[in-house]
Amino acid sequence: MKIVVLDGYTENPGDLSWKGLESLGELTVYDRTPEEQVVERIGRAEAVYTNKTPISAQTIKSCPNLRFIGVLATGYNIVDIHAAGEAGVAVSNIPSYGTDAVAQYAIALLLELCHHAGFHADCVKAGEWTRCKDWCFWKYPLTELAGKTMGIIGFGRIGRRTAVIAEALGMKVLAYDRYQDKDLETDNCRYVDLEELLACSDVISLHCPLFPETEKIINRQTIAKMKKGVLIINTSRGKLVEEADLREGLDSGKIGGAAVDVVSTEPIQEDNPLLGAKNILITPHIAWAPRESRQRLMDIAVENLIQFMAGTPQHVVNKP
Ligand code: NAD
After folding, report:
1. How many separate domains does the chain show?
2. pLDDT value of residue 261
3. Rounded distance between C-alpha atoms, residue 242 and residue 27, angstroms
4. 149 CB contacts (<8 Å, ≥6 apart)?
5. Does 229 lie in the same domain as 131?
6. Cβ < 6 Å from ligand 1: which residues?
7. Model pTM?
């Protein structure tokens, strides 16, 4: 079997091994692939892996040997899964490799918004403490989380893990999801509708996938329903947020701070409205990337193809 990895660099910049996939066929790994070369590089391959390189209906049509698309990520919005299904191509994602890492990172961003530890450490390095008249100083309002409410949009694997850490910090949790598992409710954590979540949360963390119905779920109208000073965390997908509206909310002070690991176009474009916003932290899509979770991702990617070849495909997100 011919196997092509279109954009392997971020998964394995050199600290992991492709041996598992090599053992399954004739493997070609590209660090990255420009859109215009996708069809040529897939060529006659039967299996292709992509992380963030789009695979369109046209690409699927142009690659008739293709039988398996492996997404090297949880979110699979870059693949036209319906076109793949119609062409009999299975699309497998990697659902749970990064649950702990992404939840940990969502809380890391929240803690950074609450304390600005990195910023204050830079101030000390720049000599500000040495020059300070007092024994301490802080340049942002500092926030204690205990007793505050976290609203989680998308109460799946990562959302639930984030809730557990938030509860450990003494927070109450409100969860909004299109499916509700009442067994997950506790004294500190209950399901609510979106309206109540928006109105009652001190922190809102996004953990739902990017679907047409969740695109721009954070927009001028939903922001208007939030508490003044709310903190917003996005470690899911950039397009869940109407970025111009988030900027407006930040600049006006309606939103107290936002931390996003994902933006609408990645890498971030120079004209992204969030770049100049007040009280914003932007990181370059690193929530998933600790070595431990990338190794887990690699292992599941290999297993996905093994199971597909054995006729027992797993983690299939479409109907081939
Ligand atoms: P999951 O499938 O376990 O959970 C997603 C939850 O969202 C599910 O409970 C689902 O019912 C819910 N949902 C779906 N549509 C909804 C809607 N319209 N309204 C409300 N809830 C809805 O997925 P997960 O493993 O928790 O991952 C969540 C997302 O995190 C992924 O889709 C991906 O976009 C993102 N992610 C980001 C990174 C990163 O590095 N920043 C890494 C991994 C995953």
Report:
1. 2
2. 98
3. 39
4. 171, 172, 173, 174, 200, 201, 202, 203
5. yes
6. 74-75, 95, 98-99, 102, 153-159, 176-179, 207-211, 213-214, 235-237, 261-262, 285, 287-288
7. 0.94
